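INPUT
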Amino acid sequence: MSDNENDTVGSRRAFLSGAVAAGAGALTTSVAAAQTADPLITEIQPWAQEFGDGVDAARYGLPSEHEGDVIRRNVEWLTADTVSSINFTPIHALDGTITPQGCAFERHHSGAIDLKKDDYRLMIHGLVDTPLVFSYADLERFPRENHVYFCECAANTGMEWAGAQLNGAQFTHGMIHNMEYTGVPLRTLLEEAGFDTAGDLTGKWVYVEGADASSNGRSIPMEKALDDVLVAFKANGEALRKEHGYPVRLVVPGWEGNLWVKWIRRIEVTDGPVESREETSKYTDTLDDGTSRKWTWAMDAKSVVTSPSPQAPIKHGTGPLVITGLAWSGRGAINRVDVSKDGGKSWETARLAKPGEKMALTRFYLDTNWDGSEMMLQSRAMDDTGYVQPTKTQLREVRGLNSIYHNNCIQTWLVRSNGEAENVEVS
Amino acid sequence: MSDNENDTVGSRRAFLSGAVAAGAGALTTSVAAAQTADPLITEIQPWAQEFGDGVDAARYGLPSEHEGDVIRRNVEWLTADTVSSINFTPIHALDGTITPQGCAFERHHSGAIDLKKDDYRLMIHGLVDTPLVFSYADLERFPRENHVYFCECAANTGMEWAGAQLNGAQFTHGMIHNMEYTGVPLRTLLEEAGFDTAGDLTGKWVYVEGADASSNGRSIPMEKALDDVLVAFKANGEALRKEHGYPVRLVVPGWEGNLWVKWIRRIEVTDGPVESREETSKYTDTLDDGTSRKWTWAMDAKSVVTSPSPQAPIKHGTGPLVITGLAWSGRGAINRVDVSKDGGKSWETARLAKPGEKMALTRFYLDTNWDGSEMMLQSRAMDDTGYVQPTKTQLREVRGLNSIYHNNCIQTWLVRSNGEAENVEVS
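OUTPUT
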């Protein structure tokens, strides 16, 4: 990892002293020309001569009206109804790593329910000494933790199994968000109910269920439940939004989003998995030979270039270009991301904005110069387990074409000479 | 610092195995009682029998309607008009460290202006080889960085000089927010304009100015300008909100918020400070002897208990109680926070949710048991320079009672036996 950090710093320095300086010439020429001719500089503008608006402090703030297209979007043909629907984070328009709740992807199975804090109850029962019921106020009395984690739907990128279909990073990779959660470790609540966390955990599971009509029940092995699962009530500092499980949801770091049960009402300690609908008919992985495998909870290392991309074309012509994207791994921390401009024939190591953190989004940048020729842009993530993000061909050799979930293949954008980009397959 | 980390982990373990276990008895009794009698558990609730709402993906998401009081608030008598106004972050209701933009405090001097990306220009001129004008699209072509920083108004807690006045952490300490910024280092843009960052910086300053009518011009010494100042266009991943300087603001880590010029339009390299209105008649510190001192840019180490507090009283009675708050330093990272229940006579070391990061908010927790007796709650922050947050008495010895800015005194909340809290002074 330190080798990689050196590489990253090294390539950045080379960029600042060499590549950017070269590109900077062109940039300087074009912007310096604007200085004398541009009325936005030579004339006093209206916004410098009048008061702007006051801020209505009695209302929760919203984005600038000029950013009206940076919103979640759905794909109408993908789900039957808005109450059994999914929408996608506008990752092509975001930067950094935090996802604001207001544009964070959301999936529900029977609609987002309206559940007041005063009406909230969480029951822990089954193989425990003392079955307990917690109110929201009870939960606030236990020691809390804060962690930034990504939440990715198992079906993210799922349409790509059958070929390049959805044209935009928001739609191919936008079933993901990354927030700072505040909550109580599930371990603490299980101990409160008298479960012996130091005892024999063999065969022990928890079955978790939401308060909505779908209930969305899932089984989680006890080792994971005691490791890092949170019963969370805040995201990015504030209360969970209604569609994210207000007032309380489960956070299952690194594992598929369907396990992050919203409006969580019940946690039962069992002596085996329940084999619920949500883990048998759904959320299993069809293989090339027609059989399916289950219990594939962890989201493997993955990445995507968010800009340039089909919804974020290059508009500034040749010269300095920032290629950027996101990488993540459900098994650890991202420690390297490579970017290819030629569909995987050659690779350059990208700069990570910060050292990768466990089970959280990592932002990468490749600061480069574009000569205007066509690019087949790809990114390839690696995590600290040594895992390398696979190609689509490698995945299909095992999984075939009929899977839905857990597609973490390398994504390809064809960037044309006019700067427009398209979702394509590399043969 | 490692000593402190050990202390923190140690006290947490003691809490989990000792203090909480003791308190847990009471908690278990009360919540177990709810299990059989509570119709919220025994009866199937409406939200489990019907579809919830679909999510309107065409609109930016808002908080739950049940969180309508978690908003910025202003103090009507404090400023003359909404276009020359300030509003306060609801820190009493938040947890974790990230502040969502929609409730992040905001101060403007002539209103929040409406400035489109296409109309945006930034000029860098003065003592540079090549004066340059950058469009928004130009800025996006330079290498970006991501950092979480707090922004605190120099006047935060300013009313406390004259005594305990505003009753609530939102009003005494809410002129602060903490966001993940994405932007271009100012150093990069100065180098682009041909400023010799490796040359003699003695006496060199930058004068920075916004595009609004107030222009809010401020002088910044070149050493700081080249150190960590960002020309930023994203906060928490998305575009800056209008009231936070859309589309581009300056980020001056650790230094008073007035320097974080919004809608930044001009950066002039000068051979001295401008001594503008905003740094002579304002943003200087009156001392006890009636003179004033200036250039007090850095925000010293500070902390406040956010809950319990006047707007967040204790409602659950005696037993386990989470005391939590925020700590920060403009000169480095927080490495320890102590909490007192008796007005500073005795102190307990709080648990930091994460190791402190430079110039960013740190969340602290004291997981304790409350016997119902009156408390004089205080918190005391320390940073990695060795600085310890002072008492109000210590500050007044130097600054007197007539200052406005840079009040980083220890705050006291009187918590009564009924759980209600009040802003008080400790004599």
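end of record. Chain A has two domains: 72-293, 302-423.
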